[in-house]
Write a structure and sequence with these properties.
single chain, mainly alpha, 6 helices
């Protein structure tokens, strides 16, 4: 099944996925925010299918806000909206989007010194809940 995405739909998907990486980066431990962002970005740009084509570019002109709370207010609803949008058009692409975001989140939580921080774990839980709220 082919999906048809408007420019606004693509912006919503990009805002959601790239915003999730930004949330993970903001929740990262001091000194690791860049590593978190890098690992998450690699996961997004490695996506395949129609979702991969959309996520290949970060959103342009998106103002996420100055606090993590403001970022979350924008990104978490966009994650849910993205899942709803994709499920209506192609459930397989909704699964692809969810999987891609979760890989980015998991890549972001990777800590070579052991477990991820409680802050990263909590942010990953919030992102997962937003994806599953659809």
């Amino acid at each position: 099944m082919a999906i048809t995405l408007t420019d606004q739909d693509k912006l919503t998907l990009r805002t959601a996925a790239w915003g999730a990486v930004s949330l993970m980066s903001a929740a990262g431990a001091a000194g690791s925010a860049h590593k978190v962002a890098t690992e998450g970005s690699i996961a997004l740009t490695s996506a395949t299918g129609p979702v991969g084509h959309v996520l290949a570019k970060a959103p342009k002109g998106v103002k996420y806000g100055k606090t993590v709370a403001a970022l979350a207010d924008q990104v978490l609803p966009a994650l849910t909206a993205s899942m709803n949008l994709l499920r209506q058009q192609d459930p397989a692409e909704a699964d692809n989007f969810r999987s891609t975001v979760m890989v980015a989140v998991e890549a972001s939580t990777g800590d070579h010194q052991g477990r991820p921080s409680p802050t990263l774990t909590d942010m990953a839980r919030k992102i997962t809940a937003a994806l599953d709220a659809a």
